[in-house]
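[09:14] KT: can someone run the structure on this one? pasting the chain below
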Amino acid sequence: MDYAIALPFGGPGVVDPDWVSEFARHAESCGYESLVAAEHSAMVSGTASVYPYSPTGRLSVDVDQPVPDPLELLSFLAARTATIQLATGVLILPHHHPVVLAKRVATLDRLSRGRLRLCVGVGWLREETEACGVDFATRGRRASEQVEVMRALWAECGPEGAAYEGEFFRFRGMLCRPRPWRPTGVPIHFGGHSTPAARRAGRYGDGFQPLGVDGPELLRLATVMRRAAERYGRDPDRLELSLYRGLTELTQEEAAALAGLGVHRIILQVGDETDLERLKDQMSAGAARLLPGLAEGT
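[09:31] RB: done, structure tokens below
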């Protein structure tokens, strides 16, 4: 099983070039598989929308905290690391035009020599989505088309270019270069906690990153994903399952149990800690506990 590190969400460190570079390089030296960056295009003061992954219905960070663009942040960190994978978790897909996003993603993947993984979601903050010019009610259907559009643009299509005809997007004769580093394109995982999210992962994705679910509900959503993959002629055994856990809370026993359930990756969250030296100590201790034989960080 792989272990990723989630970059802190909010706080001054993620927009301090020296701080975030040292964080990333230490995670790499410890042997973690990837760095994961979350997205909010904008935060909303006084929102009536309910955050579905907290019992209070509210985010744990203040709305005026810095939340950098994940692709820009990962591009910066790609130049300051060598081997660690780079991932979004999640990028809010309906906020991005897929033709422009396909170029941005392919460029980062190409320049990082295939280190990028894209985990996307449809978003929960209505006001944020509407500020981006997108109908909140249709964001799920739009997201499905967006993945199809990007994959069409990344495919080998010859000089005649790619074509697409959908409800929200349509074009023909389009050539979007560079193509991603890997011939199969950039892996796309779907985040979320709903049955439609699991279905999208099975039909379109390379993996599923369920948020805020556990136990029987986790198993149910994984089954939904696998059945959707089979329905559309895809191999469900090729789809990855990723979960979030706390860096300091996850035990070897829990990790082994999750591996037994078919979890491929655990994304470790660093919580509210902002002191870089303490965070580095926590990452080193987590690697020693979970990655025996691989950890090199101190």
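[09:33] KT: thanks! The mean pLDDT is 94.
[09:34] RB: yep, looked fine to me
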